[in-house]
Structures are given as C-alpha cells and as structure tokens.
Amino acid sequence: MRLLVHDSVSPVFAPALLVDYLTSEGVDATTDCHPTDADGVVAFAHDDALLDAPWVHAITAGYDDYPVEEYHEAGLTFTNSTGIHGTSVGESVVGHCLTFARRLHRYRDRQHDRQWEHEPYEAAFTLSGERACVVGLGTLGQGVAVRLDALGMDVVGVRRTPALVPGVSEVVTPDDLHDAVSDARFVVLTVPLTDETTGLVDAGVFATMREDAYLVNVARGEVVDQDALVTALESGAIAGAALDALDPEPLPAESPLWGFEEVLITPHCAALTNDYHEAVGDLVVTNARRIGRGADPVNRVV
Question: Where is the D-isomer specific 2-hydroxyacid dehydrogenase NAD-binding domain positioned along the sequence (predicted)?
C-alpha cells in the first residue's frame, strides 16, 4: 500500500516526519505523488484533489472543515484521528486552570517589567474542591476529566447520552447545560463543531455562569458566541477565559479579546506535542493494514 502525505496548508508538523515514521513501520509513504496514484492520503486539510483518493485520513480529530457529504458521494473512505489528543489537551486544560488559580499569568506579566509584587490576598485559590463542568465527554473530554479529577476537583459532564465516565461525578444532557455550568468554577468546552454546538455558549450561558468562573475552550471557536463572550468579560459576568480555539483563526489584531488581563490566548495548539506525528502514524499504520486485508478501519467517518 502506498500512502501520500498531503500538506496542502501550513502543517502542524513537518510532513517528512510522518513519512519517515510510516516508512520505519513498513509503509510506503511519500509527499510526491497525486492522490489518484496512492492507495490513501494522510491529509493536513482538505483540498478538492482528495476527492479522487480511495481513502483519506485527517490528522485531526475534528473534521468540520472536510466536506464529508462530498466524500460520501465520491465513495471514498474517510477516517480521522480522534482518540490521540486526550493526554495533550487534558494537560493543556490543567495548565490553564492552574494558571488562573495560582495567578501565574499575572506574575509572568510582571516579570517582563521586573516587578516583584504579590497578587491581592483574595485572588489566588486552589483547584482542589472546585467544580469543573466539562461540556463534551468524548475521548477529548474524558482526557480532561480524569486529569481535573486527579487534582481533587469535582467534575461534572454534559453529553447527549448521560452515562458516567471515569473522573466524572455526574453527567447531564445538553438540555440541562445551564444548570450544569451554574455552579462551576471552570467550564471546559471539548465538543465537536456541529449544527447543534455552533453558538452553544451564548449570552444565556454566560448569564448563568458564576461571576468568578472561567471559560476554557479547547473545542472550536464557533462553539462560543464571541461577541457575547466579550460582553460577559467587559461586564464582569465571568472572571476570564482561556481560548485555544477562536473564530476566526488567526484572531485579528483588532479583537478586544487580546486586551483582557484575565484572558489567555493560545494559537490552537492545545493538542500539539513533539510526538504528534507518531500518534497519527500509529493510527494510519493500523488502518492501512486493516484496509489492506479488507477490514473496516478504525475512526471511520464515512
């Protein structure tokens, strides 16, 4: 089986790393052929040339930027990389929560000005005993939940099917979202972008959240009504936000979100780690072997 590693956009890692890893695992991989000349394509993003491929694998878990219906109509197999980001994104969320609680961002800001100054006595707190609401309990949300639980937080979750998962004390359906966020110090978004989740976190949600609560978005920017978020921050309806996913990306320089002391902005990098290409490669190798023997691939979307 020959695979094309297709870097149609600026990649999150060098395509050559993935080619070398796949080659070391016995897969014939290249960056230099047309999709029609390969048995499958590992894609960093969609472009229309992929419609001629028999199999496309997205390096990301989210696939809202891929024309799934067109793939289905074209008769190609489409798989994604869900399941590999729980550790990296979970640790990123822990980092955001600890930063706010221990006021690390404010000390880092002062370091640039060489200021030796404490935060106000009432500002710092510990995560232990605080409640976190994780909205979305797929593999990503579960990776977040178990790590927050390990820090002594009371973790509640929101998902369509209210079944308990490790690290979560209570699960409710999206119909009870307002109740779920109303007593949470941190509201963490890990849902995929769908018609149902677009604009899910709106002015009504912010009005329900505690004034000392923080929003953490490691999902997609469109899940949050950003105008409502700015209003909530300006009015003090919530304490702050950590935003790894924004709309649009990159965030324009004129966005007011850059100016808030209690907002952490990262460039959609919560999942990135120096062995990302290996995790993707392991999935691709597994699916290449399964497809090669006529079995259904894992993480099949269509």
Answer: 95-270
